[in-house]
Specification:
It is found in: Cell inner membrane. This protein is an all-alpha fold. The protein contains 13 helices and four strands.
């Protein structure tokens, strides 16, 4: 039987691969590159919230640490190699996630949410109030990293393709991870941690490993963001970004990797839509209002997120007496 979800994901990535030649505009390439980076960030949070049941409100800290590490470690003497700068940036975020997780995972529920938020704000104020992070002015990236002569991230198209490669790699990695024994343990923790403990599983190491992996993936997204923009500031660690990532995965559909990507694209495109002065004129300054209303309607009418839209449409068609096409008997039109 053909897996329709796998076909959809494959077609989606193929469209992204072909997009630079379909559009050709620098604005579109830059926008989709940014959205793909946020999609990686959303996938990192999906591993915690949708797959493990850990609602983390400090994910922006790992994103920001990855971005700052990319800038601080690259130096001013010449372009650094991607081969060591990317793992170092993701590793810095993973180390902080390991430290945060080892303490915060000893709490549960709303206390876990508050502790992760507190650690994120600590990281925010370190880069905001000390010379290390350049204060409120932030830091510029003098040289974008390279890999020999064939991968130079100064070129928008090269940056686009590298971001797409990282997005596909992250999606594939999480897909394999969640189908492994480790991933099934995470699913069990999300469903009923007490039952997992009763069957002999020590759940803390699994949760800590998931938390650390999630931090590393967020650090990867931060690295890409810093390289794309060539600039970082403390707002990358602000709790607002953690909230935006949470909205992305809820909007797309919790518990689905493709939902995290769908939610990131929907959220960012809606944001661009409501910010458009050509469409909304002066009202574009109040874009938060329009975006908020759409999100409220989406949550109200699509409780399973955007990935559940086909099922909702099928149920509506069945309820109205209209038989969906795939339900027609043989020979039907």
């Amino acid at each position: 039987m053909v897996n329709q979800k796998a076909i959809f994901v494959a077609l989606f990535f193929l469209v992204l691969l072909a997009y630079p030649w379909l559009d050709g505009g620098s604005y579109g390439i830059d926008l989709v590159t940014k959205i793909m980076i946020y999609a990686i960030f959303a996938l990192s949070l999906e591993l915690l919230v949708g797959s493990t049941g850990l609602v983390c409100f400090g994910q922006a800290a790992f994103f920001g640490i990855g971005a700052y590490a990319a800038v601080l470690l690259s130096g001013e003497d010449g372009p650094a190699s991607i081969l060591w700068l990317l793992p170092a940036s993701a590793g810095a975020a993973a180390l902080y996630a390991l430290a945060v997780g080892s303490l915060s995972l000893r709490t549960k529920g709303v206390y876990f949410i508050m502790v992760t938020l507190a650690f994120a704000q600590m990281a925010y104020f370190i880069v905001h109030d000390t010379p290390l992070g350049g204060g409120t002015d932030g830091i510029y990236l003098y040289f974008r990293p390279i890999l020999g002569e064939w991968l130079v991230l100064d070129e928008p198209l090269v940056m686009y393709m590298f971001s797409l490669f990282c997005l596909v790699g992250t999606f594939g990695f999480l897909g394999v991870l969640l189908r492994s024994r480790f991933g099934r343990a995470l699913a069990g923790i999300k469903e009923n941690e007490q039952r997992m403990l009763g069957t002999g599983f020590v759940t803390y190491p699994y949760k800590l490993a998931a938390f650390t992996i999630s931090g590393a993936l967020a650090g990867l997204a931060g690295f890409l963001f810093a390289v794309k923009d060539g600039f970082v500031n403390p707002e990358l660690l602000n709790w607002h970004l953690s909230g935006a990532a949470l909205v992305m995965i809820i909007l797309g559909g919790l518990g689905h990797l493709r939902g995290a990507i769908t939610g990131a694209f929907a959220f960012m495109l809606l944001q661009e839509f409501f910010k458009s002065e050509a469409i909304f004129g002066e009202f574009a300054r109040h874009w938060h209002l329009g975006l908020g209303l759409v999100i409220i309607l989406a949550v109200a009418f699509l409780p399973s997120g955007l990935v559940g839209l086909p099922d909702v449409l099928r149920s509506r068609l069945a309820g109205s007496g209209v038989v969906p096409l795939k339900k027609l008997p043989e020979g039907g039109r």
